[in-house]
Amino acid sequence: MIDPPQRRKITMNAVVVAIDSNHDFATTAAFNYRQQNVYPYIDEKGFILERCQGQLACRIYVASAASRSNVVYLTGVGHGSYDTFTGHYYNAIFTVGNYSPEESQGKIIHFLSCQIAARLGVDFVNCGCLAFFGYDIDFIFIPTTADIFFKCDSEIDRAFAEGLTAEEVYQRVYTLYTQYAEESFLQGDFNTFKYLETDRDHLCAPSVDPRWGDCQARLE
Length: 220
Prior knowledge:
There is one protein chain. The chain is of the alpha/beta class. The chain contains seven helices and nine strands, in the order βααβαβββββαβαααβ. The protein has a six-stranded mixed beta sheet with strand order 2-1-3-7-8-9, sandwiched between helices. Strands 4-5-6 form a three-stranded antiparallel beta sheet.
């Protein structure tokens, strides 16, 4: 019998920085879901949560928070392009070549954002990020079934908070996307089915390619 993955409650002084936009329909919908279903779970697992949300989702605040040595994980939601992750009203927070190594070095990073895995995610890893999770095309969700999309993506944060490795996290998230896609297909909701499969297949992580980090990375 194969032993189940080890899940550990983090008891050290480990900090998670939450960087969340909420200035339009898309970011507000994701932000509200994460407020209810992600951050309470991270707190429950013993992490210290530092919030750079809303008007605080700006470069000046994030740079200071992310640079601290006890920060182990960066997560959040915002708009993006191939080389930039943005915050409040499109304030550029991370841009390729325009952040300090201390902001990514030794950390695991996951952002719910369009496109950023293609260049920025790779750059994070080149600057010492242990593992990056994100998407290399636009992340699309259906408003009427939005919580399903957010649940699948948020499983990344929840699984890392449980102490799983990047490989275990990816497999769990891939399975969840597949489960909900199949259920949507059987219910005749073909748009939800199609976009769940698309988001799943464009989720970038160490398991997809080592340019996004180490499959064995985990929060310690």
